[in-house]
Every structure is written in structure tokens, then in C-alpha cells.
Amino acid sequence: xxxxxxxxxxxxxxxxxxxxxxxxxxxxxxxxxxxxxxxxxxxxxxxxxxxxxxxxxxxxxxxxxxxxxxxxxxxxxxxxxxxxxxxxxxxxxxxxxxxxxxxxxxxxxxxxxxxxxxxxxxxxxxxxxxxxxxxxxxxxxxxxxxxxxxxxxxxxxxxxxxxxxxxxxxxxxxxxxxxxxxxxxxxxxxxxxxxxxxxxxxxxxxxxxxxxxxxxxxxxxxxxxxxxxxxxxxxxxxxxxxxxxxxxxxxxxxxxxxxxxxxxxxxxxxxxxxxxxxxxxxxxxxxxxxxxxxxxxxxxxxxxxxxxxxxxxxxxxxxxxxxxxxxxxxxxxxxxxxxxxxxxxxxxxxxxxxxxxxxxxxxxxxxxxxxxxxxxxxxxxxxxxxxxxxxxxxxxxxxxxxxxxxxxxxxxxxxxxxxxxxxxxxxxxxxxxxxxxxxxxxxxxxxxxxxxx
Length: 453
Ligand code: IFM
Known about the structure:
14% strand, 13 strands, 3-stranded mixed sheet, alpha/beta, 15 helices, binds 5-hydroxymethyl-3,4-dihydroxypiperidine, TIM Barrel
């Protein structure tokens, strides 16, 4: 372990993250209705191997053992997402007591074990019924997420004090509605931009509802941010860098944290949409004061001249001889320093949590153990980046490894293992990998250092 634990404050949150569709399974139980991911995954050719989240890692039934495992590892915080179609099966109207009861039990057990629950409202599983009415490109969907927020915040808000509205709205909007590689699989660029706006509007409305239902809540949003760099130094790609950075990063950061869309990006998208879905007053609704920004960081984007996220213009390539994960993503801890420095430079002051960071590798259980030295060095090196930024004065308050368990990696099915705990998908047996032990030791060393002072 080379991370300097003295760089992390006593109240630093050490956690792991998951999301509902990726782990829960039980898609037809206790009144849950299909989400867009159930529908999408069942369509031939959408997901590698035709795999779905119907069973996933059966967390809906194994949640209690999973919480025990977190407790054994000494984790301080658990970021999970709520399945909207479990809690409000029609996507509007009344809540579903049986679905809410699952999260009630989970939260109670987490608190019993001294693990702080962090709830994400939306991690991509839109009730399919709302997609049938138009999905995120339709403004009503933003109103619906606000109502769903009230239902779940009133149910859990006496115990859950950390709330994240959206996870990675870029993915929901552009992978879901432009490239179509995620649910609902539409390839309509204009609709994808409208979707991104309504997601952010839904975020703003949800923040309002959370403040009303849980006055002492800490509320934020999670964005997937990337450093964007040119494929070479010729200067020919600088405009591509500006455009991709604009669409992937600033399109979300600016309205949420500064109250307006970047003008250059509005000009870029003018041939695709007139943006008439942005109504007077929307920027104010979106830019609600937040308690923190959640950042998910995985890799850098290397960009050649070209234009639309999700197309081959955005390249995940090792141009600098960097090693890659099993997802083919550059391993680039310096990129995390770059992302954090940018947020610090352009968007401070805002407290930051790393709400996801991790990597897929081809792990194997041999004699009951998983030696994932590659994941340990990934986590170590990215935590070093965070330590560096903290030493430079940045207010980074927590780290959530992605993910607790191997799980359903969306269009990649089950092939990509991101967990610090291995799951045998046949038997559902959980085996903590070496990285889980390493992370646990780090957390315990941090605690011991605090007690010693
Ligand atoms: O598995 C995903 C997660 O759902 C959102 N952030 C990125 C992870 C790895 O691709």
C-alpha cells in the first residue's frame, strides 16, 4: 500500500457503490414492473449473450448477507440505487409498499452495522411505462421523477441523509437515445439532447422535493467526467477536443453548477436541434444549490477529429502506452488529477465525492481465492491521485469503489467483472478478492491512525 492515509480526514467516507438493475434481480417480484433495461435486454442483439438483469446477483434475496459482508470488510458507506419501477410501478401515482419495504430493510440493516446509506434515485432503470409515453425526451418525465422522489424520500428520509439524484445523465441521454447502445436503444440525436435537458430538469425538481421531505439531507448529483485530450499535438484536433469536452463534461457541469448551458455547445448542436425544449426558468430550476458533486472517474478520452459522443470519434485508445482494463479503457490515474483540477479550477467551491472508480479485469477463482493485483494497483494509484488533490487543498470527502460485487455490466452482460468481491453466477457464491482485503486493510489502517492521535 503506497497511499498516504494521512491525506484523508478523519470523517472521510470509505465506501463501495452498486446499482439496482445491476445486482438486484427479482425483476417480477413484489409488484415491480419492467424498466427500460428489462425491455431492452430482451431484444435480440442488444446485450452480449442476450443476458439480462432478471437474476443478476440475486441481491434482492441475499441483501442481508451482502450487508454482513460489507460490515466484515469494515466499509463505512454504501451507495446503492433505488429501482424506480419497484417503488412506483406505474412511473406515476401511488407508491408500492412491498417494493419500498425492501429498501426499508436494507437501510435499517446498514445502520445497525454502522454503514452510512447513500441512495441514488436514478441509475438508468426508467419504468418502461414512462418510455412508452415518450421517455426522457418528454418533459413530463422530469415531473414524474419529482413525484417518485417524494415517495421514496418520505419513506426513507428519516434514516437516509445522503442522496444522489442522477447517476451519469450523459450515459442515460446519449447512450440511451443517440448511440442506442443502452436502453431504450433509440438513435435520435435531437431526442437525446432533449433527454439530457429533461434529466437535468428532473434533477433540479428532485433536489427541491428532497429538501422538502428531508430538510437535513446532503444532496448532490453524480456525473461521469473525463479529461479529453487530442490524439496528437498537431492542433488539428483541438476543436474536436473542445466539442467532446463540451458535450460530455460542460453540458452537464455548467447548467447544474453555473446555471447556464455553454454557448459554444448550443452552437455545435444547432444543426441537430433548436433546443426549444429549454423553457424560460429552466436554468434556475436546474441550478439548485447542492451539498456536493459526485464524480465517477474511469478513464480519459482521446479524441480524433470528429464529432458525436458514442460514435467512433471518441476513442478509448492507449495512445501513450498506458495499460488497459478488460473493458479496453486506458488506466490513467493522472487523468483523475486532471479531472479534479478542472473541477477545482472552474467549478469550486463544491465538496466532491468520488462516487465511482474501479476497473474490470479477467478475474478467476483459484483454490478459493482471487489474486487481482491489477485491481489493487488501480485502486491504489487512483487513491494516490485523490491524496495529491487533497494535499493541494481540494475538498474531497469520500471514495466509493465500483463495485462491491461483480455484476451486470449493461450491454456487456456479465463478462466484465468490476467487483472487489467475485460472484459465481451459477451458484451466487461470493468470494472477496484480494482487492477487497486490501481495501479493508486500508480503511482499518486509516481508522487506527485516527485512534492513535
Ligand atoms: O457499471 C457502470 C455503472 O453502472 C455506471 N458507471 C460506470 C460503471 C462501469 O462501466
